[in-house]
Amino acid sequence: MSPSPEVVVHADAELLAAATAARLLTKLVDLQAANGSASVVLTGGGTGIAVLEQLRHSPARDAIDWARLDIYWGDERFVPSADGERNELQAREALLDHVPVDPARVHAMAPSDGVLGDDADAAAAAYAEVLAANAGPGAAVPAFDVLLLGLGGEGHTASIFPESPAAYENERSVVAVRDCPKPPPTRISLTFPAIRQAAEVWLITAGEAKADAVALALSGAGEVQLPVAGARGSQRTLWLVDKAAAGKSSVPSPPRV
Ligand SMILES: O=C(O)[C@H](O)[C@@H](O)[C@H](O)[C@H](O)COP(=O)(O)O
């Protein structure tokens, strides 16, 4: 696992989303130049979707070769495919339906009205198979280049909630989670072992409501009580936060504008 998170603080939520979009764009362009392709794991939540919207509007957007980008999700709400709560639907509206991605390289998690029916465990197992099919030799999960995550006020990330079974999962790469405190209650989520296969994990969060979780995570809280603390990349863990979310942490604030 990477060393302690690097923290970058931006003045406000809008600047955070714009700066993160610019950072992601440059990262993916560099990866494609070096490796011929790139992979990214998207997150749900308002901040994660705001980054995608900013990326859509970037004048440099098509510097990314969208056809050579593998796209995954860190978690999904287990609802019907047309339900606006779906992270995939929100990501498509924000960005993916506006750029020429290769549909075969967009790996969405199953909806509750798909071929697997309303069986969240089957949906989780199916996604684990997708990950394994796209992983390197002997690996169960691709070595994602960049894995984006959001943060809940009580410390959840992806759909790993405090003290939940998913927080204790050390074998499977994908699990169904139920009775989530953040609606909708049933979700599909990557687990810590899967998240930690990513070269870089970027945690993106904004707002005063996240300040306690940010401060606790940066001061050494455990991953079961505060799951975001366990979300580390194999090479790098980057926390991209706004000033309000950093308000209770001893991290340098952005320059006065
Ligand atoms: O599907 C989800 O809900 C997300 O994956 C979840 O982990 C989200 O990122 C956080 O709850 C932050 O959400 P906000 O950015 O909207 O606060």
Automatic annotation (TrEMBL):
Keywords: Hydrolase. Its EC number is 3.1.1.31. It is an enzyme of class 3 (hydrolase). Gene3D superfamilies: 3.40.50.1360. GO terms for biological process: carbohydrate metabolic process; pentose-phosphate shunt. The gene is pgl. Pfam families: Glucosamine_iso. It comes from the Bacteria. Hydrolysis of 6-phosphogluconolactone to 6-phosphogluconate. GO terms for molecular function: 6-phosphogluconolactonase activity. It catalyses: 6-phospho-D-glucono-1,5-lactone + H2O = 6-phospho-D-gluconate + H(+). This is 6-phosphogluconolactonase. Belongs to the glucosamine/galactosamine-6-phosphate isomerase family. 6-phosphogluconolactonase subfamily. InterPro entries: 6-phosphogluconolactonase_DevB, 6PGL, Glc/Gal-6P_isomerase, NagB/RpiA_transferase-like. Pathway: Carbohydrate degradation; pentose phosphate pathway; D-ribulose 5-phosphate from D-glucose 6-phosphate (oxidative stage): step 2/3. The keyword Zinc does not apply. It comes from Prauserella marina.
